[in-house]
Amino acid sequence: MGVVVRYVDKNGCVMERFLSVVHVRDTVATSLEKALDSLLSMYDLSVSSLRGQGYDGASNMRGEFNGLKSLILRRNPSAYYVHCFAHQLQLTIVVVAKKHTSIGSFYNVINRLCNVVGGSCKRRDILREKQRENILEKIASDEITTGTGLNQEMSLKRPGDTRWSSHYGTLINLIHLFSSIADVLEYVGENGDDSYRAEADDVSEIINRFEFIFVLHLMKQILGITHELSQVLQKKDQDIVNAMNLVKVAKARLQIMREEGWEVLLTDVSKFCDKYEIIVLDMDNEFVPRGRVLLYNSISQKSVYQYLSKYVKDYIDNVEAY
Predict the structure, then answer these.
(1) How many Å apart are CA 91 and CA 120, to the nearest integer?
(2) What residue ranges do the domains of the chain occupy?
(3) In angstroms, rounded to a whole number, what is the distance separating the alpha carbons of residues 101 and 208?
(4) Structure confidence by residue, pLDDT tens digits, 210-227
(5) Can you tell me whether residue 3 is helix, strand or coil?
(6) Which of 88, 143, 236, 271 has the most beta carbons within 10 angstroms of its beta carbon?
(7) pLDDT digit string, tens, across residues 30-75
(8) Whole-angstrom distance, CA of residue 161 vs CA of residue 87
(9) HSE, side-chain direction, 13 A CA sphere, residue 299
(10) Core vs surface per residue 104-124: b (16+ CB within 10 A) or e
């Protein structure tokens, strides 16, 4: 458990210092409380002197009755709890995603993909080698340029609900590494262990659908907006008034995307599909859900275009509602 303290010095300046990393045998709230008490006593500090507390979003830390914050508040009602703005934003987007069936299914596929591609050192090495080969091919064909800071090595990590912007980073890397990831899935499907071959083939088939690519780019754009807000909210000099103004700006950007960004999104998706030879749905055809599709709801639409347009607006409305 990492502990950081913030205090006001004798000059009236707010200071922040890393105190220590404490080993805990378990993460039960009472165990964390004992560990914190022991650490504070080493520096002649007491819970009674606390005037605020904040934690990450793990359930054992933020539980209303049994969490560490509640235990401390019982002993010291003046230790007001303040949740991190940036972390709360990340958790909110995750909650909205999980409430939206198709987005939740999309992230299930992402987790499966991360397991297959990054589940072992050997497969991670294969991904790095495929990435290197693809970069060299693009440099040779003048598709990309070389230079300091360019063409850095990337990896595909499982997104975590309590890690700032991890979902956004995973999607960005997936888009950049798509060709290399497809190569790894093909390799595992042909040469991998029996337990992974079928999974690799199944995941490969799903990510090469227009529906998956559409949700991938939709989430990249939405999380791109909230990622910028999250980065700003992490600044030490942020205040509540400015934070609320920044939230309003982010919501305005989402609204612009809802009303005017649909065509741009569709163009980006179509270009990506053309690049990787993925079949693009005819926008004039009737949208017919197939199997465990990523895009599905109970409202039928006359065409693919109408369906996807409503899909984007509905999801953005859900995000803004939170």
Answers:
(1) 28
(2) 2-83, 88-321
(3) 20
(4) 999 999 999 899 888 888
(5) strand
(6) 88
(7) 888 999 999 999 999 999 999 999 876 554 455 544 588 889 999 9
(8) 9
(9) 8
(10) ebbbebbebbbebbbeeeebe
